[in-house]
Amino acid sequence: MDKQHFDQLVKGVREMKRHVAGKSIRGTRATVVDEPDVRAIRRAADISQSQFAKLIGVNLRTLQNWEQRRTRPTGPARALLKIVASNPKSALEALHA
């Protein structure tokens, strides 16, 4: 590897570090995505973690990770949580039927 390629690699790693730290990087733009508050959604439905996990079709540990914000729901799970958040009782009754 020549010096020019090495310098480009180092520059890229530094930019990545800035990006991970939440700082702006020239030539990029950030998209703000509202994270669903899974715990609040479940509590609004007045249901236990194990019952909620079973109704929405996820592992209990996955739900706990979402609630503790160690991981976050994506794709269909995120869409389902949005539906449940809009009307918890009706949505869960529909899922239970």
Supply the key terms.
97 residues; mainly alpha; 434 Repressor (Amino-terminal Domain); 64% helix
Task: Note down, in words, how this protein is organized.
The chain has two domains: 1-32; 38-96, lambda repressor-like DNA-binding domains (434 Repressor (Amino-terminal Domain)), CATH 1.10.260.40. The chain is built from six helices and no strands. It has helices spanning 3-20, 38-44, 49-56, 60-67, 75-86, 88-96. The longest helix is centred in the N-terminal third of the chain and has 18 residues, at 3-20. The protein is elongated.
Helix/strand layout:
Layout: H1 3-20, H2 38-44, H3 49-56, H4 60-67, H5 75-86, H6 88-96
Task: Provide the CATH top-level class of the largest domain.
Answer: Mainly Alpha
Q: Any low-confidence stretches, pLDDT <50, length ≥5?
A: none
Summed up, the helix count is 6
Structural class: mainly alpha
Considering the protein shown, what is the CATH homologous superfamily of the largest domain?
lambda repressor-like DNA-binding domains
CATH architecture group name of the largest domain: Orthogonal Bundle
Mean pLDDT, to the nearest integer, reads 88
Query: How many structurally independent domains?
Result: 2
Per CATH, what is the topology of the largest domain?
434 Repressor (Amino-terminal Domain)
How many E strands?
Answer: 0
Strand content: under 5%
Rg on CA atoms, Å:
20 Å
Write the H/E string, N to C: HHHHHH
Main β sheet profile: none
Brief write-up:
The chain is an all-alpha fold and 97 residues long. 64% of the residues lie in helices and 0% in strands.
